[in-house]
Amino acid sequence: MSFKLFSLLVQASVWTIGISAISIAIGFLIALGLSAALLSGKALYRKPAEFFISFFRGVPLLVQLLLIYNLLPFIGLNVPSIVAAIIGMSLCTAAYQAENLRGGFESVPKGLIEAADMVGFSPRQVFVRVKVPIALRLTFPALVNEAIMILKSSSLVSVVGIVEITRMAQDLASSTYMPIEIFSSAALIYLVICWAVALAGRFGERSLPGAAK
Amino acid sequence: MIFDPNVILKHLPEIISGTGVTLALWIAGMLLGILIGFIVATLRRYGGRAVDLPLGFVVEVLRGTPFLIQIFLVYYGGPFVGLSLDPVPCGLLGLSVYAAAYYSEIFRAGYASVPHGHVEAGECLGLSRLQIIRRILLPEMALIVLPPSVNLAVILLKESAVLSIITVPELTTTVSAIGSQEYAFLEAIFLLAVIYWVIVEAAARLGRLAETRLSTFRFAAS
Amino acid sequence: HAEDVLAKVKAAGVLKVGTETAFAPFDFIDAGAHVGLNVDLFDEVGKELGVKIEWVTLPWEGVLPGLEAGKFEVVAGPATITKARMERYRFTAPIAEATVAILKKAGAPISKPEDIAGKAVGVGKATAQLAQLTEFSATLPSKVDIREYPAFNDAYADMAAGRIVAVANSLPNIAFVAKQRAGMFEVVLPPFGKKTYFGFVGRKDADYASLMDAIDAALIKMKGDGRMGKLQDKWFGTKFDTPDAVKDPAI
Amino acid sequence: MTLPAISVRSLVKRFGTATVLQDIDLDVPEGKVSCLIGPSGSGKSTLLRCLAFLEEASEGMITVNGEALGFFENAKGERERLPAGQIRAVRAQIGMVFQQFNLWPHMTALGNVSEALKTVHKVPKAEAEERAMVQLAKVGLANRAGHYPSQLSGGQQQRVAIARALALSPKIMLFDEPTSALDPELTGEVLNVMRELAAEGMTMVVVSHEIGFAATVGHQISFLDQGRLLFTGAPSEIFAKPRHPRLEQFLDTYLDRGASMLA
Amino acid sequence: MTLPAISVRSLVKRFGTATVLQDIDLDVPEGKVSCLIGPSGSGKSTLLRCLAFLEEASEGMITVNGEALGFFENAKGERERLPAGQIRAVRAQIGMVFQQFNLWPHMTALGNVSEALKTVHKVPKAEAEERAMVQLAKVGLANRAGHYPSQLSGGQQQRVAIARALALSPKIMLFDEPTSALDPELTGEVLNVMRELAAEGMTMVVVSHEIGFAATVGHQISFLDQGRLLFTGAPSEIFAKPRHPRLEQFLDTYLDRGASMLA
Ligand SMILES: Nc1ncnc2c1ncn2[C@@H]1O[C@H](COP(=O)(O)OP(=O)(O)OP(=O)(O)O)[C@@H](O)[C@H]1O
Ligand SMILES: Nc1ncnc2c1ncn2[C@@H]1O[C@H](COP(=O)(O)OP(=O)(O)OP(=O)(O)O)[C@@H](O)[C@H]1O
Ligand SMILES: [Mg+2]
Ligand SMILES: [Mg+2]
Predict the structure, then answer these.
(1) DSSP string spanning C140-195?
(2) The domain spanning residue A91 has which CATH number?
(3) ipTM of the complex
(4) Contact C29, A171 (CB under 8 A)
(5) If 0-12 CB within 10 Å is exposed, 13-18 middle and 19+ buried, where does residue C160 land?
(6) Ligand nearest to the CA of E36
(7) Which of A119, A86, A71, A91 is nearest to A30 (CA)?
(8) At E26, is the secondary structure helix, strand, or coil?
């Protein structure tokens, strides 16, 4: 396989990495809100969050993307490809991350929260200063796992017209008719990216404040 | 927009058979994956570095590359190295190996979650290693292993759609074929969304049920 | 929505065309660039209409939903014109013949279409070519072992892997494949089955009629002045004689 | 006698149908050390947590320096919940030290002690840390300010927890078995800090199994059993014979294990 | 004097480069109670774990009733590992009770006690459970047989752990701080069971902070400090003055906290 083809794949990986990174970040923020809603005593917050998670975990990402890209125009929102891709991936990963974070929040030792109550924290300060950092520590490995999963799922965003690694590989395979070589190279590129994420995750875990050294 | 529900009714038998194939492959692949994953995790725990490192490498490769590409390479590349499999066995093998890589990590965490003292108590009483695994480690880790396993099952169900590229007649293949045959893409998307959602919701509920069962049985309030 | 689409396109100066890029030689990626017969044809259509062409490339499963959602005005598929499809979409004037022929693995003992009797032959799932192959198979002394693939590219891969010995697809496509992998695949002539044509896909809605008419006019004009023939020759190595319109498709 | 720092009247605490505290009346004298002793499950922790308003009493009233905590009696004589701001204001007079330390693992010792000053009291960072350092120095840990809890021994962690509570200058400190998670040699460090606080006249309520500490430092000892306050008095009274039979039995288990025969 | 139940010779234990036990010589007399005391980190648990072969000593020999445990000295005078079956046979004479109980949470008390009988000794289920009930009755828990560990108090859990070890009829019982995770009243339950065992002539090695227990029940007391055995002798000797200066200091921290002033 020529260097030229390989470099096309590498160029396409910019989309894979870019869209995944942005979606993971946005998804995380949404997931924080969702998990807070899940743990809220009020059904008014909890029920919609449960439904959100059920839907975005239950329906295949491919279908979600098609719906966002092709149904939003019917209500007058003609979103560009990249926006549709980021919305779809963010909402999907948010659903998974929220479930992880819920587990984390539930395992924050109650005593640490009581200690914060005792020194006068407001509920919001307790959330931001105590619950989030500790839940994050507890769920960090699971979140990194989810990041790798969504990175691999990003191959589906081609359905809204973005040529990322997998789509580029399919295009190249169909014009050169050398699918084995091209898909092997694509696999290698994914592997390198995922390994980098896993390594970064392990480093991040170790450098979280107060981690046992 | 055009939406014609008759398309769905007309092809009901194919849709049901596609759903059946997906369910069968998914469940079989998952069970095999759990079994292989458990064996891998156990070998990695007790086999020393010489076993742990190479297995760890394989697990990372399987986790680090998309299932679509793995299955493509095995099915279409396999014959070049003398491995020519039929679509369904190839799909089942691919799905269970992919699942095993992830399950092995879940079990690894499960092993780590059992306090070492519980193992030592077994050793002191003369239990053999196998007895310790079977009677102490496995039942004790069950509750910790369950939620991520359900999560993974959901992911596997969706990944099973990838088997369409090796001509396995599963749900996504069947429904999208109906879509392109009838030029009824919207109906196809809608149908896929609903069927997958129903299966995932059922799996999630089953998982939650198992979790409550296990936890009430084991940690009854004092 | 009642606004006339042609007027809108002209006002914007841009015609958006959706397609998938894994369908050589109509649309494909060569050295990173989107090229093919469709690209050249729409360049000319754009000139006729006085608008620029903007491509939206999607995997095939996203293309027709995109058309219905108004992501683009027309699909440069192209698709074989069939009766069933005409019920849902409007096709443009044909741009090439779509009659089905056999692509075989080099050296396979197939010298005429009838030789595929009893052999394993691949074809795209739910395609017009599948219907043709099935029909053809019924006329043979022993049935063809028909294998269906989600995409023709997977069928070619499986022919390389040796599970099948031939693939049935429209002549323009397999001619291109044979040219690309000379020595590996060969075309078996003549084509079999009924004469069919490729056309571009558009919407039947009334507000789209003027646009579809304008595209038809442009295509027929190009056929008349020989530009279409030249492009067919460039991409297929041969010219096709196509009618101005297909009113009653053979399949 | 001055006004008690905390006064508890007819307090009842139920969890579901189980009554865990019954009809508790207790005055905690200002500037003195009050100890709560009693067998396991007798309700000591629950009572202390009610004083910190970490549990809401089911009935009865608690006043802190004359101000109602959590609930007040309205004109009609009904119990009514106070607004959150007011609860927080009264609770600000109270510092609590937990059995399990409950230090925030993602902050250094200095961070743990200065955090509330910064976020709750809006003290500028530099000043907050300076004040935190003073408290850490007081518990002998100035040189450990930059360590995370995971890098500190149990005794050191508990001293940081004390410094954290002291940093907000509470009038009253509550301790729930502050040494029972520590092993014997680490216990000494913490008890010494508490002794110093007592000497400085801090009002303290201590749930303790350290009968030695209770006997030497406590000014008042209360004995709880099955949710009832059976006895409150000076150490000399409580250890003098004849005693309440239940208390007698309880102290016996200690003496049995004690080191009295070792001297 | 009869043969010691356990004899330890020139035992050294290293973790990586850290030497945790140095040159330990110890005889555990048969039918007697030997106590190990010493400050935190001195190596008490490690020594006990070596006796149970949960840790492998780096150097030296351990014999149990005359049989080598884990390693033996071959003809060339080299240390060689024994086959797994033989190790298991020697270890079968030893029962261990852990500080953290280490009960299996997914089995009832009865399940915990009968498990090894069923799986290791292949005793039929009915008989195994009958024998387990006898042991549970011995520690006063016959009426708790169907409870899961999470439904038992700390003292009850520790007694189940003792019953679990006793069910296999070991000749020697090792206890690692059997009461330090318990509160004072629960401690009593467990110490009483141990006293009974001692009275029956069970050979016992107890790591304990319960100096009272060591002094009254122990026949032999050994004092460890920084991995060295500084002193072994009868209680009367160890508590008599003048003592080793390190031991003096160690006992002081206890007396300081003790209940000697309460009588
Ligand atoms: N959240 C709760 N729900 C139900 N019962 C509870 C709860 N918290 C405590 N209890 C019960 O209340 C009683 C008193 O508990 P508390 O923790 O106050 O005892 P304690 O005197 O502090 O005991 P210990 O010395 O063991 O700490 C116990 O019987 C306990 O089981
Ligand atoms: N697995 C290990 N790796 C490295 N060092 C260890 C390990 N286990 C114990 N140590 C070290 O060995 C020393 C002795 O530990 P040990 O647990 O035997 O002390 P101990 O006397 O039982 O103390 P305590 O009274 O606190 O239980 C300690 O300094 C400890 O840090
Ligand atoms: Mg308590
Ligand atoms: Mg120890």
Answers:
(1) SSS--EEEEESSHHHHHHHHHHTS-SEEEEEHHHHHHHHHHTBTTEEEESS--S--
(2) 1.10.3720.10
(3) 0.79
(4) yes
(5) buried
(6) 2
(7) A91
(8) strand
State mean pLDDT over E37-48: 88
Question: What ranges make up the beta strands (E) of chain E?
Answer: 6-15, 18-28, 33-37, 59-64, 67-68, 71-73, 79-81, 94-97, 172-176, 203-207, 220-225, 228-233
* Cα distance between residue A105 and residue A95, in whole Å: 15
Residue D49 CB less than 6 A away from ligand 1 = no
Rg of chain A on CA atoms, in Å: 20
Helix axes C37-49, C209-224, angle to 10 degrees: 110
Q: Smallest CA–CA separation between C69 and chain A, in Å? A: 5
Q: D20: alpha, beta or left, given left = phi > 0 and alpha = psi -120 to 50? A: alpha
CATH classification code of B5-221: 1.10.3720.10
**Ligand 2 pocket, residues with Cβ under 6 angstroms:** D 183; E 15, 18, 20, 38, 40-46
Does C127 contact B78 at a Cβ distance shorter than 8 Å?
A: no
| Structural contact between residues E206 and E34, judged by C-beta atoms closer than 8 angstroms | yes
E81: which 2 tokens?
């590992």
Domain span at residue A30 reads 3-207
Which ligand does the CA of D24 lie closest to? 1
Q: What confidence tens digit (pLDDT) does each residue in C161-206 have?
A: 888 999 999 988 888 888 888 888 999 988 988 888 999 999 988 8
The region, left, alpha or beta by phi > 0 then psi within -120 to 50, assigned to residue C28 is beta
Peptide bond into C249 cis (omega under 30): no
Report the amino acid identity of residue B122.
G
The CA distance from E59 to E26, in Å, is: 14
What backbone torsions phi and psi does residue D118 show, to the nearest 5 degrees? -75, -55
CA of C170 to the centre of ligand 3 (A): 82
Query: Rounded mean pLDDT of A32-44?
Result: 90
Q: Which DSSP symbol is given to D208?
A: -
| Nearest residue on chain C to A178, alpha-carbon basis | C157
Q: Compute the distance between CA of residue C246 and CA of residue A92 in angstroms, rounded to an integer.
A: 45
A212 part of a folded domain: no
Residues near E144 by Cβ (< 8 Å), separated by ≥ 6? E109, E136, E152, E156, E160
Taking CA atoms, what residue in A is nearest to C68?
Answer: A70
Read off the pLDDT of residues C30-50 as tens digits, 9 standing for 90 and up.
877 889 999 999 999 999 999
User: How many domains, chain A?
Assistant: 1
In chain B, residues with a C-beta closer than 8 Å to the C-beta of A198 are 60, 64
Nearest-atom number in ligand 2 for the CA of E47 is 18
At CA A78, angle to CA A72 and CA A81, rounded to 5?
A: 95
Categorize the per-residue pLDDT at E155 as very low, low, confident or very high, splitting at 50, 70 and 90.
confident
Which of B118, B123, B220 is facing E150, going by the closest CB pair? B220
Residue C115 CB neighbour total at 10 angstroms: 17
Chain B touched by C205 (CB under 8 Å): no
The tokens for C144 are 């063809």
Question: Domain spans of chain B?
Answer: 5-221
Domains of chain D: 6-93+172-262 (3.40.50.300), 102-170 (no CATH)
D171 part of contact set with chain A, CB < 8 Å: no
Separation of alpha carbons D121 and D115, rounded Å: 9
Look at strands E71-73 and E79-81 and give their pairing: antiparallel
* Nearest CA among E249, E198, E252, E250 for reference residue E37: E250
Which atom of ligand 1 is the closest one to the Cα of D42?
A: 21
- Look at strands D172-176 and D203-207 and give their pairing: parallel
**What is the structure's pLDDT at C40?**
94
Residue whose structure tokens are 């100066």: C13
DSSP E207: E
Q: Return the SS3 of E132.
A: helix
